[in-house]
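[Protein data]
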Amino acid sequence: MNVFWERQLSEIREQLLLMSGLTERSLVTSLRGLVERDDSLCDAVEEEDSQIDLLEVQIDEMVITYMATHGPVAKDCRFMLAASKISSNLERIADQATKIARHAKGLNQEPLFKPLIDIPLMAEIGREMLRDSISSYIEGKPDLAVEIIARDRSVNDLYKQLARELTSYMIEDPKTITRALSLLTIAKALERVADHATNIAEEVFYLYKGQDIRHERVRKLAAAARREENGSDRG
């Protein structure tokens, strides 16, 4: 590979690192806006979202240009496709951060009716999954990608636990319904963040191993759901 094309690949990596850094910052800032009850932090998240959108467009354009002019081999094609899909998942994580910020601003106008425990925990796990998934891509560590995928279950479990708790609050005290629904929306956004980080990890595994494990995860989730349902039936 000549120096020009190697530079093109490096630029794509650099743009992805920049995009992932901004996305992680948006996620952290949105949670700070909620926990610290600071509307200015929430506003900062919304303002930065357009910059992340622009980076997604730029990365896609770079990928298209490279593939159209370079005639890449299979490995390069996988790298380019992974870069495009990763940028798409980063943009969606940023969208979830914006959603969190918007609901946080609403919650900041009223007193919280319960301590924020599970939501910050979900956010921290999701942030670590995001950071590690990008590291596995840049550093070529598919084994780390597999470990990231396994963490998604803990976020799902926290979401289910919080959903049950918030439902109980709404049943017991209808005055909490609006605030509880906002918290539930935030929790769902964090669950989606973990899903997108998992998607990135799966793309990394495919890039370096040439094996698509997305449907394998779907099969495992379906099997786990069936086991859970059967257990409930026996109870």
Observations:
- The first helix runs from residue 3 to 35.
